[in-house]
Every structure is written in C-alpha cells, then in structure tokens.
Amino acid sequence: MITGILFDFFGTLVEYSPSRVEQGYFATHALLLNEGVDISYAAFLGNWVAVSEALDQWSRRTGLEYSMEQVAQRFLSRACPHRRSPDLSTRLWVSYLAEWSTAIRTIPGVRELVQELSARFRLGVVTNTHYAPHIHAHLREMGIAQHMAVVVTSIEHGRPKPHPSIFMAALERLDCAASATLFVGDSYTADYLGAKEVGMQALLIDPHGTASIPAQAAIGSVLDVLKYVDLQTPRPYGRDPKERPS
C-alpha cells in the first residue's frame, strides 16, 4: 500500500537541459565585459564548465553539495583574481542561472497529475540543486507547490542524492514509512538506486528502456505514475459516483 509519493524535479516534473553551454550565456558574458573582465565568450564558458566539473568531482568525493555562489567565486578567482566588484560573484551566478533556466519546460499534464495524486497520497519533492529558491519558485509557477507536503533540496540539506540521508530526511518530514513511499525520478543512480537503498519503492523514467531494472519499474514519463499507483493502491470508492459499485 502506497501512502506517499516523492518526486525528483529536473527531468521528472519538468523537462530541461543539463548542459552548461548550449542554452547561450551572452548576457552573462556581457556582464563580465562590462565589469572590465577581458575574456572571450569561449574562454568564459570553458572556465565555467571546468570549475563546475571540478566541484562535481568534489561533491562525489565528499558527499556534500555546493552552491552557485561557490561556482561563481571559483570562476572569478581564475578569470580575474585581482580586480572585481564585491558583489560581482552574486550577480554573475544569478545571470547565469537565469539563462540556464531558459531550457526548462513544464510537462503538459503534470499539474493535473499532481492535483489528482494529492487527493490520495502525501506528496513531496527531493531534488539536487545548487540554489533552493529556484525550485520553490518553479513549483509555485507550475501551480503545484501547495500540493507538496515536503520539498527537500540538496543545497539546503547539505548532501545530494543518492546519499541516503536526503531520502531519510524527506521520509521523516513526509511522515511515511519507506516501504509505503514511492520515489519517481529519471536518474538510475541518484533516484532509482538511491531510493531503493533506503527501502523505498521506485519508478525510473526510462522511455528507451536502457536501464537494467524490472519492467514494472520503468515508465515512459511522469504521467504514467497514475497507472502504476492505481494498480498498487486502488482508488477508494465514493470520490466519483461513477466509480461506486452497483
């Protein structure tokens, strides 16, 4: 019996591109030029990616999360170590994040799905992110924030998925047993294996069937969650007269 459902955010509730370059970061580059930082667009992106990947490696090694402020500060230490405005690092990552976010797209039907599920289960979000307000803002804009009993982000928790502690923190706040909670995500390691390690049920968004998981644990999109939970936890009669037995 499922009593709670936790969702990943990026790639699950929204479509997005994880690329650090393809979105186009011309406004962020212009910000640097206006501050007197003599750097080409290609060098700007190359240095940003190098710093981000180094922090990714640090995060995997330590099990800790890093912030956008850390990315910007390390980047500026490489690009202009001796001359910059005191608040440039903050303005830099705010601009970068705004341009990165242009690739985020709401999946049609997600709001209706969440509304439907919220009448039957306790819901929440567990996501890796380097800036928590970004997630909360998107949930509000999608019209589903009010349906989420918990929102646990890696930057606020301090450890990213698949670290067990972030899942356990979410379960404690959701007030649901791990065995009665379903996790839905698009990453085999961070979402599927991470959730299974703490005893949760898990679904992996795997439309091309590339992951080595049981067939019943693979879904084509988040919208398929409803079919799965209907099989595991039938809808109670009485919500709709048409659903009542004759």
General description of the model:
The chain has 246 residues and is α/β, with parallel strands linked by helices. The chain folds into two domains: 152 residues, HAD superfamily/HAD-like (Rossmann fold), CATH 3.40.50.1000; 78 residues. Helix content is 44%, strand content 12%. It contains ten helices and eight strands. It has a six-stranded parallel beta sheet with strand order 5-4-1-6-7-8, with helices on both faces. A two-stranded antiparallel sheet has the order 2-3. The protein is elongated. The relative contact order is 0.16. The C terminus is likely disordered.
Please give the structural blueprint.
Elements (H helix, E strand, L loop, with lengths): L3 E4 L6 E2 L10 H9 L6 H22 L5 H12 L8 H13 L4 E2 L3 H9 L3 E6 L4 H11 L7 E4 H4 L6 H11 L6 E5 L2 H10 L3 E5 L12 E2 L5 H8 L14
Parallel strand pairs: 1-4, 1-6, 4-5, 6-7, 7-8
Antiparallel strand pairs: 2-3
Helix pairs in contact: 1-4, 2-3, 3-4
